[in-house]
Amino acid sequence: MEYIGQSCTSLNLRINNHRHHIKKYAINGKLSLPKNNTYSTYEFEHFKTHDFKDTTFRILEIVADEKARLQRETFHILSRKTIFPYGLNTFLSKKTPVLNDVHNSVFSVFYLNGNKTTRGNRGPGFNGKFHKFDENTILTNILSNFDKPNFVKTTKNLIYGLKDKAVNRLAQASIYFKFNNNFVKKLIVDLCKHKLKINKIVNANDDIRRRSYFRLNFTNNILDKVNLAAVLRSNDCRFPINNVKPILSFKYNKTLGNIAKNHRQTITLDVQPSNCNCDVFRNTTYFDNNHDHIVTGDLSFVDNIELERLLNMGTKFRLQKFKDRNKILKQLDEDIDSYAVYCSEAFGYPLTTFNAWKHCMKDGIHNNLKKFFQIKNNNIAHDNMKAAFLKLKELQKSFVFTSIDKAENNFAIICKFYYLQLIDFELKNSITYKKDDSEVDHLYKIMADWHKILNVKQKSTTTTSIPFLYLIPKFHKNPVKFRFIACGVKSPLKTIGLVFQDLLTRVIKKINFATSYEDTNQNWIIYDNKKVLDILNNVDFITSVDTFDFENLYTSLPLEDIKETLIQLHATFELEDIVSIIKWTNLLECNLFYNYILFNKTIYRQSNGIPMGANYSTAVCNLFLFYKEYIFMKKADTATIDAFRYTFRYIDDLITFNNTIGFNSSHKIYPDALKLVKTNSSNLATNFLDITIEIKGDYINFYKYDKRGDFNFKSIQYINWNSCISKRVIGNTFTSQIYRMLKINKQKDNFDNEVRILIEKFLGNDVPSGLIKYLLQLFNNKVITDLHRFI
Q: What is the pLDDT of residue 425?
């Protein structure tokens, strides 16, 4: 057990004070201390059964400044995990007690791994009959193992190995169980709270209800008017299990993008087209002279009014599944029955328990639906719809329908023959890929071996496939460029990638915390525009701003350098508590060097860079670049530290304020393989993320920037009102966008103009004007104080 403390007095005096208070507490059983004391009562309790002579002391670091010393104390308490019950500390800096029921759990505070926990192999799952589980026996066994090595780890594995319902029973029992050791009780309570993701362990008789998601198929927009939530909340339809609260959720129909996009089918064609008829369109606006083929985002190309209207709804538009009232009701009845079966199995109740509840729910929904005599179709007329989809099917024979970079709700139309040529050229002629002579069966064997090495459960080969490469156009570039993306949704290594992603997330959280207490700007990573806006709003004097972009970052990263760098990072930040160095090295080896693409019956191996599209790619990029920047700042002199004080990076986009040094050759940070390109011509103005920044003497102005403004066609940004989804989603989108406009526009004129444009776009998407007025009024009432800055 460890205790961390800072002191402004000499070490011998501080130790004597601890010894004195421990002896006094042992004699009297209590201690009168001043209100501003920083002593831990858990320390005093600990030494009731342990001898102070057995303690050892170590100076971690010497910090002269009091504020900095308190920051470092907090850092060491959390990084060395000394908060009770895992150590003997009670307080963080500012004397904040950390062991309190208002906090989620101590475990989540310093392990920084979110709420996601996986069941360990050693913990009993109690998959048999649940009534055989005896919580008092489990608590007695835990208590009896207190003096054994790795007690905390063993207890954690045991509790995390239980199913939630077993943990819930164990937590309830811990309230009444007679512990003779306060440490053990606090440990069990804390781990149960973290496993169940709750704030407080309460008596089972108290009015506390566990959430259970009650999923309904949202087959028609009429369900929004039926008010299903009101039926569920009604007293007549009270759920039969008192401690379970059904939470209404929806399963939506397929999007228009799922139906119209055909890049996957194109890539996996057995027989590829040998020519095209793009010359017919040579003198039209749809023909791209730079590419000599059809590459357009102008949907009038389809030459069918109804299909054009449908595609202009956007890739996220959802069609209604049913129009017939009886079919809608039948689907709802099936969903209610399915949920009752699920609850019966999950909570161990007979299915007949839910009969009254099912009957009440069905009656309530049926009665509400009868109020609406006419159920409208949110799409076009049936005959026109049929004709539109026939036209789409015809066009898909010669053209690829896909998304657009920076505008994923828009459709792009590209000549199919040229689309395949571009992918073929990328695979055969770029430095990113090399042909591999391996057979598919051999690749599956390699990937099976990796699953065994990493102890990760492998998916069946019948449900997996080798990733393929597809592309989306960048219409904000002139001439139009393309982004190549590896699609590994069904990759045999998908499960390993998910494990890697989870560990990377935990590593980044720990690094963010470790660097947050440093006075120097050692961590440039940002995840949104918040820190940039803080600088613009709070820094007194900004004289310059420069922005940079990494050219082809993902495919330019040197693989060996990534591996070596992230291994060094593991040692520097002591990541052994998150992942062992052996597993970390194996994960890097597997995810960096075993990426394959299958195209036209040929295997290609990625020999340079990491796959754009893998779920771990962004995190790997961020960590690799972070460590290069971290080492640079650690070695920097005072002038360099000041120059890079206001420098931030959003993946491959860099911004730096008041930087008199810049990214020149004498301040080398990144490897030669990465090309950093300056993106603003003047250091008095730039565009970064969604903000335009202008420096005019002592005045800094900023307002919204949107790359989609560079398109030569209409950008479809928001979901259409007629889409088959809950209208609450659309209303929340409108409100959140106004909040965003308020933050990123400094002047009232810019804010008013952006809100006008937003209103026009939502009205153009058939959102009722009455709803927009209502949402605007709510917004004004909530942020009236923020609006005063425009006065």
A: 94
Q: Give the count of alpha carbons within 13 A of 243, CB side only.
A: 12
Query: For the sheet containing 675-678, what is the strand order?
Result: 647-650, 653-657, 545-551, 675-678
Average pLDDT, stretch 379-386? 64
Cβ atoms of residues 145 and 179 within 8 Å: no
Contact (CB, 8 A) for 321 and 220: yes
CA dihedral 530, 533, 534, 539 (to 10 degrees): 160
- pLDDT tens digits for 28-56? 666 555 555 556 666 777 777 677 777 88
* Sheet of 407-415, strand order: 287-288, 293-296, 407-415, 399-404
* Contact criterion met (CB below 8 Å) for 301 and 311: no
How far the first Cα of the chain sits from its last, in Å, is 58
Q: What is the dihedral of CA 192, 196, 198, 203, to 10 degrees?
A: -60
Q: How do 675-678 and 699-704 pair as beta strands?
A: unpaired
DSSP assignment of 39-105, as one string? Answer: --HHHHHHTTSS-GGG----------SHHHHHHHHHHHHHHTT-BTTTSSB-B-GGG-B--STTSS-
Distance set, CA 327 to CA 366, 375, 557 (Å): 12, 12, 54
Residue 724 burial (10 A CB sphere; 0-12, 13-18, 19+) = buried
Distance (Å, rounded) from C-alpha 575 to C-alpha 581? 8
pLDDT recorded at residue 234: 86
Which residues have C-beta within 8 Å of that of residue 20, sequence separation ≥ 6? Answer: none
78, two tokens: 């959390």
pLDDT tens, residue by residue, 287-317: 999 999 999 999 999 999 999 999 999 999 9
244-252 and 210-218 beta bridge pairing: parallel
Q: Which of 714, 522, 722 is nearest to 625 (CA)?
A: 522
Q: State the chain's maximal CA–CA distance in angstroms.
A: 98
Q: Is the pLDDT of residue 241 over 80?
A: yes
**Gap between the Cα atoms of 663 and 713, Å rounded:** 37
Residues 434, 439, 444, 449: what is their CA dihedral angle, to the nearest 10 degrees? -80
In angstroms, rounded to a whole number, what is the distance separating the alpha carbons of residues 161 and 155?
Answer: 10
For residue 479, say if its preceding peptide bond is cis, omega within 30 degrees of 0: yes
The first and second tokens of residue 22, run together, are 């421990």
CA 571 – CA 592 distance, rounded (Å): 19
Burial class, 256, CB count within 10 angstroms (exposed 0-12 / middle 13-18 / buried 19+): buried
Nearest to 398, CA basis, from 421, 422, 414: 414
**What's phi and psi for 403, nearest 5 deg?**
-80, 175
For 487-508, what is the mean pLDDT? Answer: 91
| Strand order through the sheet with 596-599 | 433-436, 602-606, 596-599
| Cα–Cα dist 500/502, whole Å | 5
pTM for the model: 0.74
Strands 602-606 and 433-436: antiparallel
